[in-house]
Design brief:
The complex is a heterodimer of chains A (429) and B (259). The two termini of chain A are 24 Å apart. Chain A is 49% helix and 11% strand. Chain A is globular and about 55 Å long. Chain A folds into 2 domains: 285 residues, Alpha/Beta hydrolase fold, catalytic domain (Rossmann fold), CATH 3.40.50; 134 residues, no CATH class. Chain A is α/β, with parallel strands linked by helices. Chain A contains 17 helices and 8 strands. Chain A has an 8-stranded mixed β-sheet with strand order 1-2-4-3-5-6-7-8, with helices on both faces. Chain B is mainly alpha-helical. Chain B has one domain. In chain B, strands 1-2 form a two-stranded antiparallel ribbon. In chain B, a hairpin with a 3-residue loop joins strand 1 and strand 2. Classes of the chains: A alpha/beta (429), B mainly alpha (259). The interface between A and B is large, with 72 and 63 residues. Chain A: This is AB hydrolase-1 domain-containing protein. Chain A: It comes from Trichlorobacter thiogenes. Chain B: Keywords: Lipoprotein, Signal.
Chain lengths: 429, 259
């Protein structure tokens, strides 16, 4: 105990120096946190990636007896993407951020980079994506890290059973970003008891410390919209006309990366407007989550209870209603009551605390398998939370000076670090 | 060649409009209870709204495309990607992309964009000769940028409204205006093709034409990473509709958003 505290203090004393030095050498160009999160990494700053990677889509039927509502007719099971080597190799499971499917752009880039470095890869949809809620979640009420991790673990087990005859695996590893990073931490903990995989390395990229606090921070971005989140429609339409006017007067050839980059360099949107746009994107993702959960549990939240939606029915009104509901609406009206019913006496604070890395900090601190990548200016973290992560992970934390939330995840240095960490290279700084 | 693609697409349309009415009917056994939240609570502008009076039909077509992809198109594209070396794939794409310059050229003329038409013509000539029939694209490195044009954009440029949103079989998101544009572009390409008749002397000119058309379809899909219903969001239909519509409005030089 004394040593670990001493270790933390030493780390804190030493940290500012390498970070300052790094600032000069780090080539990721976008300074603003919101801007970086929207623009991501310009293509020329990504590493050279292979044009083709042998992949196969896995469709896992985790609940053969589950009767799926007709509106989800296309959902035939949990879709995972599997990239494989033709020789014995380590396997990495990757879980994306809130709402991400198995083929989200970021996951595809990470998969290619890992494949190139000699890994087998399986990407899984986020437990908050519609596909997961319909096909892999036992409760179909997403958001509880312990339950979601258990569902993910079952899915990983099923995915592994499906491919185990075809490939040779030397070791298993985990990687997740954003909400997925918190989820894989809980998956790793579960694996310590169940021991199906005995994960070697677990890499968390841009995790929230507390999911509730980070969601609060994102909801605060919506407050920068004139009139607040309830006037998002006015805001989106106004931003859109700004966007098209800029295109019209700028003599652009097409809407492509150059155009989007010009929006950034010309500062078309203010910092507040950029914040609002991030908030809207997040709300659209959350709308999908709460609608899917509502249909699956028939709880009458945005869709009338007992209504059976057909594949050709319009969902537009549900879409509008759902984007106008906040994270707090979902938490207070759906999420908390669901768990309170199962565990009488559960307080809100207890439920909030359970969705935090702090609830498993002893494990995270003691296990050498964890690594962390995040950014100084990731807006889902407060200064105190960033310091907490620094203390918790010590030299296993890699904190870049900029990149916002996930903006630099595809940047070549970041991907090189990810690979080196999972390969357990000694050269890691 | 694109004419073939488009004509066969239209035949599909005719075939499938008959199917599009069939929707699975769910049976409600219990009485409905109003939802906790409804649209009436919110006093805001709607967003991502696009004129879509035939939404049910469009959704059926969207679903058809999902199955078409799943059982035919994507397996074929996957097979193509598996057997064809990347180098050859790129040459094939170059060939089709060069043929597409004809449509870019005619439409930049229709829009009286002289410089753009000249640049497109320059691209076509350069890539057809130095680039060996379009297999390579030296024109871009000479600074002649590709300008994608089509008759839908031409109509938009001259002020035609997009009209209702349409989901076409195989082609996917479109609009009344863009679908008409597709017919015109196809007719022009078909006319040029018939006039030149490159395989007229062969006994197998139809088979060759059909083969080139099919490969063109495969090449197009090979470049699209989009997969129906795989976004992870149940409102995908609206997001796709919105992005398609706005991109077309903006790129055709018209503005449609509400203030």
């Amino acid at each position: 105990m004394f040593y670990s505290r001493l270790f933390c203090i030493v780390c804190m004393l030493l940290l500012p120096i390498p970070v300052l030095a790094l600032d000069d050498r780090y080539g990721y160009p976008i300074q603003g946190s919101h801007e970086a999160s929207i623009i991501g990494t310009p293509a020329e700053l990504m590493p050279e990636l292979p044009a083709r990677v042998p992949t196969r889509q896995l469709v896992l039927d985790l609940f053969p007896d589950r009767k799926k509502p007709p509106i989800f007719f296309y959902d035939e099971g949990l879709r995972c993407t599997f990239a494989y080597q033709d020789k014995k190799a380590p396997l990495v499971f990757i879980v994306g951020g809130a709402g991400a499917g198995d083929r989200t752009d970021k996951l595809i880039v990470m998969t290619k980079a890992l494949y190139q470095a000699g890994f087998h890869v399986i990407t899984l949809p986020s437990p908050s994506s519609a596909n997961f809620i319909v096909s892999a979640s036992r409760s179909s009420v997403p958001g509880d890290l312990t339950e979601d991790a258990a569902d993910l673990y079952r899915a990983m087990d099923a995915a592994w059973k499906q491919v185990q005859g075809d490939i040779e695996v030397s070791s298993f590893h985990l990687c997740g970003y954003s909400l997925g990073a918190s989820e894989v931490a809980f998956v790793a903990k579960l694996d310590e008891e169940r021991k199906l995989f005995n994960f070697g390395k677990v890499l968390m990229i841009n995790p929230p410390v507390s999911v509730y606090n980070s969601a609060t921070r994102i909801e605060e971005l919506m407050k920068q919209i004139p009139g607040g989140a309830k006037k998002q429609g006015f805001f989106v339409n106004r931003m859109l006309s700004k966007f098209s006017q800029f295109y019209r007067y700028g003599n652009f050839v097409t809407i492509n990366e150059d155009f989007l980059y010009a929006i950034y360099t010309e500062k078309l949107f203010t910092h507040e407007e950029t914040a609002g746009l991030i908030g809207i994107t997040y709300r659209i993702g959350m709308a999908g989550m709460l609608f899917t959960s509502d249909v699956m549990t028939n709880s009458g939240y945005v869709v009338p209870k007992n209504r059976v939606l057909r594949p050709t029915d319009s969902l537009y009104e549900y879409f509008m209603v759902s984007t106008h509901l906040s994270f707090f609406d979902y938490f207070n009206e759906q999420f908390y009551p669901h768990f309170q019913k199962q565990r009488p006496g559960l307080t809100k604070q207890q439920l909030i605390d359970a969705q935090s890395l702090k609830s498993i900090e002893g494990y995270l601190k003691s296990s050498a398998k964890f690594g962390l990548i995040t950014n100084e200016n990731d807006f889902i973290l407060t200064r105190a939370e960033l310091d907490y992560l620094r203390q918790l992970f010590g030299k296993r934390a890699k904190i870049y000076p900029r990149g916002g939330h996930l903006g630099n995840i595809e940047y070549k240095d970041n991907l090189a670090y990810m690979i080196a960490f999972l390969q357990d290279k000694e050269t890691l700084q | 060649m694109r004419a073939f693609q488009r004509l066969s697409g239209l035949i599909f349309l005719a075939l499938l409009l008959s199917l599009s009415g069939c929707a699975t009917t769910g049976v409600t056994t219990q009485a409905e209870i109003p939802a906790r939240h409804s649209i009436s609570e919110f006093n805001d502008q709607r967003f991502a709204e696009v004129s879509d009076p035939w939404e049910a039909t469009n959704r059926s077509m969207y679903r058809f495309n999902f199955y078409f992809d799943k059982y035919l198109f994507l397996p074929v594209v996957g097979g193509y990607e598996y057997i064809t070396p990347t180098f050859l794939q790129e040459r094939i794409s170059g060939f089709y992309s060069n043929l597409g310059e004809l449509q870019n050229f005619s439409n930049s003329l229709f829009q009286l964009k002289g410089l753009e038409a000249l640049s497109t013509l320059g691209r076509f000539v350069t890539n057809s000769t130095v680039g060996i029939g379009g297999l390579f694209d030296p024109a871009t490195s000479f600074g002649l940028e590709r300008r994608n044009q089509d008759f839908g954009k031409t109509l938009g440029y001259w002020g035609a409204d997009s009209g209702p949103y349409l989901v076409l079989p195989v082609f996917g998101p479109s609009s009344m205006r863009d679908a008409s544009g597709l017919v015109v572009d196809s007719a022009i390409t078909y006319g040029v093709y018939s006039a030149i008749d490159p395989f007229g002397s062969s006994d197998y000119s139809f088979e060759i034409g059909a083969g080139i058309t099919t490969l063109g379809f495969v090449d197009t899909r090979h470049h699209q990473s989009f997969r129906y219903f795989e976004s992870g969001n149940p409102f995908e239909y609206y997001l796709v509709r919105f992005f398609y519509h706005e991109k077309r409005e903006i790129e055709s030089g018209k503005r449609s958003t509400k203030e």
